[in-house]
From TrEMBL:
Its main location: membrane. Coiled coil: none annotated. It comes from the Bacteria. This is Probable membrane transporter protein. Belongs to the 4-toluene sulfonate uptake permease (TSUP) (TC 2.A.102) family. It is found in: Cell membrane; Membrane. The chain crosses the membrane at residues 102-123, 174-198, 204-225, 232-250, 262-281.
């Protein structure tokens, strides 16, 4: 019973972060399941079965709050489902250990770009509203879906920074669209696992616990993401990407850093991340104050204009 309560709390916390920042549910939940001895395929299957429910609720909540771009959902979600089914089907015969640090390095670079751009310059308005094309979203969905199924998480960490870096969609709609399209990925991955493994190793009590926790958090996260200013949200997402992938790299065979080195690096990263969010908050306050002053000035000018007969 204690384990089920813990899993429900993990599902709640993971979905709160995932629904607010567009990533982390799968990674967080899978990490816990692996830590208590679940084999990788069963852990990923358990998480994806739970995600069918959490992503449905999350997507519905994001849609109600106006956070979803449906063309993006379809353009990335359908290829993502194909990639997820393939990844789930072949997980038992594939190893992503070699590819993991390469992917982490790519994502770390994207994270640095997202954090820097949103912290220093905010949302790039010149590209905002331009369509995201199939030739970009299709391959992105295919890769993200495959990584998500084989690694137990990855749809958000791969998809969110890539779309954010394009500057064509505001952060809340990036997060809402990624969360909504993940429903298709979760269904495809679950079908792949059930086809390849049956129900072997899957504890449906754990699935239910993760689902209940995630279902509670999903509407809250969708409300939060609508009310967090884009500049601050971009800095928050960028920091999550950097910290997550730095951890992967430091633990990889490429670096294999000692505990002391890793903790020192984490301390620096968290300090920089906090400073970036604080800077974005101050910049947003200045922008709001400037916009308010401009509105007042324009209102005063209109009021002082002589009335026409």
């Amino acid at each position: 019973m204690r384990r089920l309560v813990l899993l429900a709390l993990v599902g709640l916390g993971a979905q709160l972060v995932d629904g607010s920042l567009g990533m982390a549910y799968g990674v967080t939940s899978t990490t816990l399941l692996l830590a208590i001895g679940t084999n990788p395929a069963a852990a990923s299957a358990t998480v994806h079965l739970a995600e069918i429910g959490t992503t449905l609720i999350s997507g519905t909540s994001h849609w109600k709050f106006g956070n979803v771009d449906w063309p993006v959902v379809l353009k990335i979600g359908l290829p993502g489902a194909v990639g997820a089914f393939a990844g789930a089907t072949f997980l038992s015969n594939l190893s992503t250990e070699t590819a993991e640090p390469v992917m982490a390095l790519v994502l770390l670079t994207l994270g640095l770009y997202v954090l820097t751009r949103f912290t220093l310059w905010g949302l790039k308005k010149s590209e905002l509203g331009k369509p995201l094309r199939k030739r970009f979203l299709g391959p992105l969905g295919l890769v993200a879906g495959f990584v998500d199924a084989t690694g137990g998480g990855g749809w958000g960490p791969v998809g969110t920074p890539a779309i954010l870096s394009s500057g064509r969609l505001e952060p809340r709609k990036v997060i809402g669209s990624i969360d909504t399209s993940e429903f298709l990925v979760a269904i495809a991955a679950s079908l792949g696992f059930l086809t390849a493994l049956g129900s072997q190793g899957i504890d449906f009590g754990w699935v239910a616990a993760l689902l209940i926790g995630g279902a509670i958090a999903a509407p809250i996260a969708a409300w939060l993401v609508r009310h967090i200013p884009p500049r601050i949200l971009g800095s928050m997402v960028g920091g999550v990407i950097i910290v997550t992938n730095s951890r992967t790299l430091l633990k990889s065979d490429w670096i294999d850093a000692s505990d002391g080195t890793r903790y020192a690096v984490y301390a620096v990263l968290y300090a920089v991340w906090a400073a970036a969010i604080a800077h974005s908050f101050r910049a947003w306050r200045r922008e709001e104050a400037s916009a308010a002053a401009t509105t007042v000035e324009e209102s005063s000018e209109r009021a002082s204009e002589p009335a026409h007969a």
